[in-house]
Design goal:
The complex is a heterodimer of chains A (about 300) and B (about 210). With about 300 residues, chain A is of the alpha/beta class. Chain A is built from twelve helices and seven strands. In chain A, helix 6 packs parallel to helix 8 and helix 6 packs antiparallel against helix 9. Chain A is globular and about 65 Å long. With about 210 residues, chain B is α/β, with parallel strands linked by helices. Classes of the chains: A alpha/beta (about 300), B alpha/beta (about 210). The complex binds zinc ion.
Chain lengths: ~300, ~210
């Protein structure tokens, strides 16, 4: 059961934290109720509750963490708080239940671009991160520059399908090591659009395709480099940006031969609660439920 | 067994009651490294010799007040009520604050809203938000005013300071919350779970900007 707030935030051109937290309070319990109904499940059949502890908007996390723990406490159920970021990797287990670390993972979303190693001992180490914008932010900002609606990722994906990805050779990021940087390509797009003035539909599609190509290439370059440094049998690509059709296709072409590649189905890449369930199963096996009430942690990492 | 929660201000409280009988209270001052409110509730219910299964009603203060505190209190209340299918009530925060005055509720209650603004309430009217420097016009001479944080009225206006009920004549928040909860449980209609909302006395800044935009 997914309740999206995109329509609520679209008039503002981005997510408004206060509106998000307000909507959470009103919709969360009805959504839980409908999910149980859809699954023909009664609370008496539920064994445990899992919830996102972080990272994210504090107002939204507070609502989730407190409602989940209140329900668990009142029903005497164990509860486990998990990382939303790690869940984007663990979501791969919904497609492949036998998936085991070591895994090289790329999490790309509106808030994150992280390259991680899910190690054999179950821990997750971040080996690369963005120096400026997240990949999803780069898509959103690019979309705004091209005059496309929010959320920008899907809009660029759609428009790019009719464009030539080689029309403009945008710069690739220059962050050191395995880190990412997208501010350069964003600025390049901005200057290009300003220089051209009025854009024809053809030009707009070409720019979208070229811009998307630069971001996708930058992401995959880093994954390839990490895999060359320390090869692992499995690579997972997750997060909202992993819905992008060009990224999925290019990842298959470039990473498919380097390792077993798992990209969860698009609906499991977008933020969803099934991946929180998957994360709970992985974490439960490792450390069991949380022994005492816990707070939301807006800056939580992968664990 | 019923529970009332007020985490909307600097002073916060939990009350466990049975009918009109008080079973246990917890009063604390909000701090950055507080334990989760649910941990306090768990301890309090144990102290009242109760169990989660005994819960048959829950009430929470709905503001105006702290963004974080309200989200914690309202979420806990909603979760408890939903999980046990018990009545859920929300109580306006400033009338609770007014009941902290010893010897009868104050007729005016003020809560610091930050940035030189005040959440202001007077008996018989809805809470509003106003600049602190408009208080002199709004407060009549002889008003009995309770203020959070205590002593704040002098900071807003020295001429008005004498209207504030002194700290020595204030009861703990839990005492006011208990009175408000009993009245609410006995006379008010419970809410649906999707009606849970903090009391906003002004829209989000982004909404405001959008409304003003041409
Ligand atoms: Zn996400």
């Amino acid at each position: 059961m997914i309740r999206s707030q995109d329509a609520l935030h679209a008039p503002f051109g981005g997510v408004v934290p206060e509106i998000a937290a307000r909507a959470h309070l009103q919709t969360l319990i009805p959504v839980v109720e409908r999910a149980l109904e859809t699954a023909s499940t009664r609370w008496e059949q539920v064994d445990a509750v899992a919830v996102t502890r972080g990272p994210g908007l504090v107002g939204c996390l507070l609502v989730g963490v407190n409602i989940a723990q209140a329900i668990a406490w009142a029903r005497r159920l164990p509860v486990i708080g998990v990382s939303h970021l790690a869940a984007h990797i663990y979501a791969a287990q919904l497609a492949e239940p036998d998936l085991k670390p070591p895994v090289l993972g790329l999490v790309v979303s509106g808030g994150h671009s992280d390259l991680i190693r899910w190690q054999a001992d179950g821990s997750i180490a971040v080996i690369g991160r963005t120096r400026d914008d997240a990949a999803g932010e780069a898509f959103d900002k690019g979309a705004r520059i091209l005059g496309l609606p929010f959320p920008g990722g899907p809009a660029i994906d759609k428009l790019a399908a009719d464009g030539n990805p080689k029309a403009v050779n945008f710069p690739r990021p220059r962050a050191p090591g395995l880190d990412f940087s997208f501010s350069g390509v964003k600025t390049a797009l901005l200057y290009d659009v300003r220089k051209r003035g009025e854009l024809s539909p053809r030009q707009r599609a070409d720019l979208a395709a070229s811009y998307q190509e630069a971001i996708v290439d930058a992401l995959l370059q880093r994954v390839e480099a990490a895999q060359a440094e320390q090869p692992v049998p499995t690579i997972v690509v997750g997060g909202g940006v992993a819905r992008n059709r060009r990224l999925r296709q290019a990842a298959q072409e470039r990473l498919g031969s380097l390792a077993h590649l798992v990209i969860p189905a698009p609906e499991l890449c977008t933020d969803n609660a099934a991946m929180i369930g998957a994360a709970a199963l992985v974490e439960w096996e490792r450390r069991g439920p949380d022994p005492a009430p816990f707070d939301a942690d807006p800056s939580l990492g992968f664990s | 067994m019923r529970v009332a929660i007020d985490t909307s201000g600097v002073d916060q409280a939990l009350v466990v009651l049975d009918g009109r009988r008080l079973l246990a209270v917890d009063d604390w001052v909000r701090r950055r490294d507080d334990p989760p409110v649910l941990a306090r509730l768990d301890a309090l219910v144990k102290r009242a010799a109760g169990r989660p299964d005994d819960l048959d009603g829950v009430a929470a203060a709905r503001g105006p007040g702290s963004f974080t505190g309200l989200r914690v209190g309202l979420s806990l209340a909603a979760g408890l009520a939903y999980a046990r299918h018990i009545p859920l009530h929300l109580i306006d925060s400033l009338p609770i604050l007014a009941r902290r005055a010893a010897g009868g509720p104050a007729t005016f209650a003020l809560r610091d809203a930050g940035r030189g603004e005040v959440y202001a309430w007077r008996e018989g009217e809805a809470a509003r938000r106003m600049p602190a420097d408009e208080l002199a016009e709004w407060l009549p001479t002889g008003a009995r005013v309770i203020v959070e944080p205590a002593g704040m009225l002098a900071r807003w206006s020295l001429e008005l300071a004498h209207l504030e009920i002194p700290a020595t004549e204030r009861r703990p928040l839990s005492a006011a919350l208990l009175d408000s909860a009993i009245w609410t449980f006995e006379s008010q209609k419970p809410l649906r779970y999707d009606e849970v909302q903090a009391l906003y006395v002004q829209p989000a800044a982004a909404e405001e900007r959008r409304r003003k935009a041409p």
